[in-house]
Amino acid sequence: MRNPRHETGPPDLRTAEGFGAFYEEHVDAVLGFVTRRVADPHLAADLTADVFLAAMGSAGTYRGHKGAPVAWLFGIARNVLAGHARGKARESGALARLSGRRLLDDEDVAALEERIDAERACRELAERHASLSEPLRAVLDLVVVDELTPTEAAQALGITRATVRVRLHRARRALRGAVGSVTRHRLEAAR
């Protein structure tokens, strides 16, 4: 079966037909990348559209022979998501200054406590992941979650393959240590 991530001939992104075919071929991969990072379906659709708008704006700089198209798109997606996060942080700060904090009633607190308990395993994994430095997390996410090759991850991040391999090794080693620490903590708590 053919893998669209490894297209050999770069399409001409400057034409409507070429970009349309490029979009159709890669929209699912970009949407998957975005939906793994945002929970709101409307926001995911908007951000995916923003990624392709940015790609359309950068079509003149696209060099298909330099790597996989999806790695180029994931690099653009990372920038779009980072820009969105910065805007959201500014917006949240402004809203907090304007409106203050909403108080929770007893039902809200009880519902949150139930959800917190139910999500404990996910939080532990997220904490281990969050404890990694951003460069290690970025490489790990692209290779493990987004299933890029180290070469494609290097292209998306704008770094060398050797740097990707080193960061991937360090991230995996750090997660193995964190898993051991959590296991030891649980064993001590059980005693």
Shape label: globular
How much beta, percentage-wise?
Answer: under 5%
Backbone structural class: mainly alpha
Number of helices: 8
Oligomer: single chain
Biggest sheet statistics: none
DSSP summary, beta strand count: 0
Write the layout of secondary structure elements.
Blueprint: H1 16-35, H2 41-57, H3 69-99, H4 106-118, H5 120-130, H6 134-145, H7 150-157, H8 161-190
Helix pairs in contact: 1-2, 1-3, 2-3, 3-7, 6-7, 6-8, 7-8
Give a quick set of tags describing it.
single chain; mainly alpha; 191 residues; disordered N terminus; globular
Describe the structure.
The protein contains eight helices and no strands. It is mostly helical and 191 residues long. Helix 2 (41-57) packs across helix 3 (69-99), helix 6 crosses helix 7 (150-157) and helix 7 crosses helix 8. The radius of gyration is 20 Å and the shape is globular. Mean pLDDT is 80; it is low at 1-8 and 182-187.
In short:
The protein is mainly alpha-helical and 191 residues long. The chain contains eight helices and no strands.
